[in-house]
Amino acid sequence: MKISNLSRRSGVSVPTIKFYLREQLLPPGAPTARNQAEYDETHVSRLRLIRLLTGIGMMSLASVREVLAAIDNNCLSPQRLAQVVNRALLPEHAMPSSDPGCHDPPASRVGSFLDGVGWNVRADAPERESLVRVLTALEGLGVPCIEDVFAPYVDAAERLAVREIERQLGTGGAATVVARVVLFEVAFAIMRRMAYTHHLGLRTESDGCPPTR
Length: 213
Description:
This protein is mainly alpha-helical.
């Protein structure tokens, strides 16, 4: 198909497609004439994946580039691919300063917590660092006990992770796995917010206040 048809099929504008081609996020088509090329379904799929990563996944182009490179690397293990996607999904935040009077810094407590949970998380994993940031911020709010705070999240995360992995088996290639990881990550966050709002509304109603819609 020509680039105009590729644009219609993928929902991505021609200028954006050309930009992705220049940035090598999209592989070139088969040359047919000077400044013309033929594209196929693999290009449609790649463009839809890029839209998913930048749109729903809210990834930067630099992160998208890393994820696409990981997808195209046939030697990458599923665990390593998941690590690349997880890093791309993590927002960049400044590290809050910890309490200088605390003898057991947040990083140490997060490490002990993960060891207790039994999760094999690399010391340099960005998820570990992000959890340290969260704990540090929580301590600033006066919530110091990591076990009490995160135990329910561990239970929920365990069940969801096992279920997602079981459903992913045999569902397709690396691109499909990445798309599912991104979509379920966002879906879980959205449903948690909806549940929070719902139950908060129920409590508000029980207090005699009119619910908001």
